[in-house]
Amino acid sequence: MKDIVFDLGGVMIDWNPRHLYKKIFASEEEMEWFLSNVCTPQWNTQQDAGRPFEKGLALVKEKYPKYSAQIDDYFNRWDEMLGGPIKGTVAIWRELKEKGYRLFALTNWSAETFPIAREKYDFLQQMNGIVVSGEERLVKPDPAIYARLLKRFDLKSTNCVFIDDNAANVSVAENLGFDAILFQSPDALRAELLRRGLL
Predict the structure, then answer these.
(1) CA distance 145 to 132
(2) Would you call 173 helix, strand, or coil by DSSP?
C-alpha cells in the first residue's frame, strides 16, 4: 500500500500573509510593495530554515525602520495569515485516511509558528508523521530534507506519492524516486489520485 506525503501551505492550509496585511495597509499597492521588498518570501524562507523570528525581524527593521510596527506584526499576528483549511484537499485526505493509507507531511514552516497551526487543525494531529523544515534546519527542495523524512519514518521513496504546489519541490521528489504530483487544485488532485487507483 502506498504512503502519501502532503505539503501543507497552499495544499492543505490556506496560508498567505495578505490575509493579515490587507487589514494593516490602506492600499493594496503598499501591501504588495511591503511583501515584495520588506517581509519577502525569500526572507520568510530563512525562518522556515530555522532562523529565529527575533533575528529575522531585527534584520528588516534595521533596514526599514519606518515599517517596524508592520514587521513585528508578521510574527505577533502570524495566526491571522491562516485563511483556514483548503477544504477540498482535507476531504481527500480524510478519504485516504479512511481507506487505511499512511499519511505524512513534509512542510517548509517555521518551528516557532508551526505549533499554532498544529493546535488549530485536527488533521495535523492525526498525521502518521510530519517533518517541519524549521525544526530540521533544512528546507525543500534540498534533497536532505526528503531523505530525513524517509529515514525517520522508514519509508521508501518508490512507495510514496508526494503532493506539493511548488514545481521545484516536485522535481526534486521525482528525481529521488517519489511519484510526485504538482498540486493545482483539489479537483485536479482528486483526478490524479483516481488515475492512480488510490481513491
Answers:
(1) 9
(2) helix
Tell the CATH superfamily of the 3-14+83-195 domain. Answer: HAD superfamily/HAD-like (3.40.50.1000)
pLDDT, residue 72, reads: 98
Of 129, 125, 192, 128, the closest CA to residue 161 belongs to 192
Domain coordinates of the chain in residue numbers? 3-14+83-195, 16-81
Predicted confidence (pLDDT) per residue in 27-67, tens digit: 999 999 999 999 999 999 999 999 999 999 999 999 999 99
Helices (H), the chain: 18-24, 28-37, 41-48, 53-63, 68-76, 87-98, 114-120, 122-125, 133-136, 143-152, 167-175, 186-195
